[in-house]
Amino acid sequence: MQRDEGSRMIVCCGEALVDVLDGDESRAVPGGGPMNAAIAAARLGAPSAFVGRVSTDEAGQLIWRHLQRSGVDLRACERGAEPTAKAIISLTPHPSFRFEGDDTADTALAAADLTALGHGPHILHGGTLGMFRGRTADVLASLAERHDGLVSLDPNVRPAIVEDRHRWDRFHKRWLSVCDLFRASDEDLAWIWPGRAADDCAAELLAGRVTTVIVTRGARDVTVYTAEGQLDVTAPPVDVADTVGAGDAFVGSVLVSLWNRLGADRAALTALTLHEWRAIATRAATAAALTCTRPGADPPNVPELETALAELS
User: Fewest C-beta atoms under 10 Å: which of 110, 193, 245, 249?
Assistant: First the structure.
């Protein structure tokens, strides 16, 4: 049963871009971690908003329609004439990656005002490229620092795009100073804190502001850390088409579960038991597994997820 939260929403902030396969613009697909998480949350039945700057060019129009079709609220989103960032992915003759992101719309967010979304408090989620790129980075970090609801962070590191490690670290620390929920892959942790075990990283985070740490390993294995202890969850086996967007679907599902249970109450997050987290993590891992069964970032809707969960029980 969904909570009746009125104007309280899941607000995902950051970049929206396109992935272009083999340099063929006709095969451009909307992407961006926070945008994908907003879409996952909307498809899973929660009021979801995206905060970022979307281009008015052709690729930006593609992104805008994609968000609208998934029911994402765009009232706090900006439009601009700057070009859309592109991740150029080539599969032949050899796999390669190129990022075209200089002076793009996602870096140029002028302001982040959630007034249009209602009084809140909202769940605020950020990470990936919007956390550290351009003017957007400071606008979103400042938004997180003054936010009075639950704050979620998924660093979702893209090493090939991080040109200034010190800048990345600075904005990551600003988000961590106000973060309640921290999700990262084991590969993220190895890049952020080289040579340290996940358990050690989680313990340090929990000793600070963070209430819950979630670490994913590959597309299936999840560990949740809280002050009570830790638990492990494994996603159901599936035939994998690709893993694009699986982590974002996982995050979107977790945020929906928290919205349903807590609204955006930071204090209530600390009271969640590991037993409750097992149900939340199992649901999220199943959402991620379903996303892996189809190409691109295409998270499931509520009936698809409920059917998959029923088959597990």
Answer: 110
Domain extent for 268: 10-14+33-52+114-312
Is residue 99 situated within a structural domain?
no
Whether omega for the bond prior to residue 121 falls within 30 degrees of 0, making it cis, is: yes
Q: Give the position of tokens 């957007």.
A: 136
- Cα–Cα dist 258/158, whole Å: 27
pTM of the model: 0.94
Q: How many domains does the chain have?
A: 1
Question: pLDDT by residue for the chain (313 residues), tens digit each?
Answer: 344 445 799 999 999 999 887 667 777 899 999 999 999 999 999 999 999 999 999 999 999 999 999 999 999 999 999 999 998 877 666 767 889 999 999 999 999 999 999 988 999 999 999 999 999 999 999 999 999 999 999 999 999 999 999 999 999 999 999 999 999 999 999 999 999 999 999 999 999 999 999 999 976 799 999 999 999 999 888 888 877 889 999 999 999 999 999 998 999 999 999 999 999 999 999 999 999 888 778 899 999 999 999 988 7
In a domain, 40, yes or no: yes
Q: Is position 71 within any domain?
A: no
CATH classification at residue 249? 3.40.1190.20
